[in-house]
Amino acid sequence: MDDSVDGATTRWADKLELAELVAVLSSAVDxxxxxxxxxxxxxxxFDDHGTFKGTGAQFADxxxxxxxxxxxxxxxxxSVFDVRGDEAWGETFYGFNGSAGTAPVTGHxxxxxxxxxxxxxxxxxxxxxxxxxxxxxxxxxxxxxxxRDGDDPSxxxxxxxxxxxxxxxxxxxxx
Length: 175
Fold this sequence. Notes:
Strand content: 35-45%
Radius of gyration: 16 Å
Largest sheet: 6 strands, mixed
Shape: globular
Helix content: 25-40%
Distance between the termini: 49 Å
Structural class: alpha+beta
């Protein structure tokens, strides 16, 4: 096998592992499985879910705490991954339906993710939720905004939520 075939096979395997990681995380969130949620994230992770911002472990606690959500179902669409050695960026389309008590909740948009391979396994380091629709009552202004140009969050290859001089760089720019 030549190097180009080996490289393509490795990239394909990496993309498959990343897609599996995103799917496992969504499944774990739907089941409120704290351990599985936390296992998808790097220790130094940051998840920006709009009204929730914190580490992957804190996100697991947030999702699994007693609260209004009585059911949740994520459906993932296509994913696009850019793998460069032991780091990767991804964009995955999602839709979700659930219940808060007896009231239905729905939303859809994209996860814009940064991953690192740590000790041979891919982990989520930085997630941004970029919704096209948020559940009724949610604060749409707390999320990254989608754009139909080169300033969309999926293009910036951000590795973390960089804070400089007391503000988040690039946060909701152009909105």
